[in-house]
Amino acid sequence: MVAHHIIVRSPLPLPYETHGWSRAEYVRFAQTHASGDALALVWATLAQWQAREEKEGEEYVRLLLEWKRQVEATTT
Questions:
Q1: Residues near 1 by beta carbon (within 8 Å), at least 6 away in sequence
Q2: Under 8 Å between Cβ of 64 and 46
């Protein structure tokens, strides 16, 4: 939920857009996969955003990276 809230408020393309999916494909993915798979999709999208090195959305990328570190620290 946290990642989704951050992403939809950012100027960055949504994960399904980044991966070239339609909204329907994204909804189907979310309905048929475990939450860990959805989180992996967010992490993959985050890596793509980092590679873009654009100023627009930079603060959101930093925020998501910090959140990712916290999530990983609590799950290991």
A1: none
A2: yes
% of the chain residues with pLDDT over 90: 9
What pLDDT, in 10s, does the model give residues 33-68?
Answer: 988 888 888 888 888 888 876 677 788 888 888 988
Q: What is the pTM of this model?
A: 0.66
CA–CA gap between residue 30 and residue 52 (Å, rounded) = 25
d(CA 75, CA 56) in angstroms, rounded, equals: 30
Domain boundaries, the chain: 2-75
Give the contacts of 16 (CB within 8 A, at least 6 positions apart): 22, 23, 25, 26
Is 11:56 a contact under the CB 8 Å cutoff? yes
Q: What tokens does 62 get?
A: 């930093």
Distance CA 75, CA 71 (A): 6
